[in-house]
Write a structure and sequence with these properties.
Strand 2 and strand 3 form a beta hairpin. It is built from two helices and five strands. The radius of gyration is 12 Å and the shape is globular. The protein has a three-stranded antiparallel sheet with strand order 4-1-5, with helices on one face. It is of the alpha+beta class.
Length: 59
C-alpha cells in the first residue's frame, strides 16, 4: 500500500490532488515511473506500507 501526505492541501502530482491528510492507495495505483516522481517530490511524504494481508503472511 502507498500512503501519501501532502504538505499543501490540493497539491497536484501524477494527475491527483493530494490532501494534507494521509491517503492510502493500492500498490498498483501508480506506475513505477509515477511512484518515483511522487517519492522525489518535496511537497509530498510518500510511504510504502505493508498491507494487512502482507503483515499476516509475514507472521
Amino acid at each position: 500500500m502507498i500512503r501519501i501526505t501532502s504538505k499543501q492541501a490540493g497539491f497536484r502530482r501524477c494527475g491527483v490532488a493530494h490532501p494534507e491528510a494521509a491517503t492510502e492507495y493500492p500498490n498498483n495505483a501508480f506506475t513505477a515511473g509515477q511512484l518515483k516522481q511522487l517519492q522525489s517530490e518535496p511537497m509530498l511524504v510518500v510511504e510504502i506500507v505493508a498491507d494487512k494481508e502482507e503483515k499476516k503472511a509475514a507472521k
